[in-house]
Write a structure and sequence with these properties.
Layout (H helix, E strand, L loop, with lengths): L1 H14 L5 E4 L4 E3 L5 E9 L5 E12 L2 E4 L1 E2 L6 E7 L6 E14 L2 E9 L3 E6 L1
Parallel strand pairs: 2-10
Antiparallel strand pairs: 1-3, 3-7, 4-5, 4-8, 6-7, 8-9, 8-10
């Protein structure tokens, strides 16, 4: 019996270690505007059943600086925000970062974080 449990242990441990899926919903290029702020949007999905969706704090990170994203009303799992691109700068790198809590057996929720790959936003003059 113990042997069977030990054989299943790696499968059980991996089952709880799923990562989220980010989908960028923003075009790669946007026309330059007067306020130098450019909208970005993402969707986030996760198969992690213990994730507490109501605890998500979402950010877009540009040059190490986080800017808060807000959840899109009515649309499930979508967030939007603004990325600053200074005048004269043609592109910036950014990524999405989500901090959240997840439930654990026999204890209080624990913090975790997911980050997307890096994206490039080009600004056309």
């Amino acid at each position: 019996m113990l042997k069977k449990i030990l054989m299943l242990l790696p499968v059980l441990l991996l089952a709880g270690c799923t990562t989220g899926q980010f989908t960028r919903l923003t075009p790669n290029q946007q026309p330059r505007n007067a306020n130098n702020l450019y909208p970005v949007e993402t969707s986030f999905d996760s198969q992690q059943q213990s994730l507490r969706w109501d605890s998500i704090k979402a950010y877009v990170v540009v040059n190490g600086q986080p800017y808060a994203l807000r959840q899109v009303p009515v649309v499930k799992n979508r967030w939007e925000g603004l990325v600053p691109v200074p005048a004269g700068v043609k592109s910036v790198s950014y990524r999405f970062k989500f901090d959240y809590l997840y439930n654990v057996f026999g204890g209080p929720p624990k913090p975790n974080s997911e980050a997307s790959k890096t994206f490039i936003l080009k600004v056309a003059d």
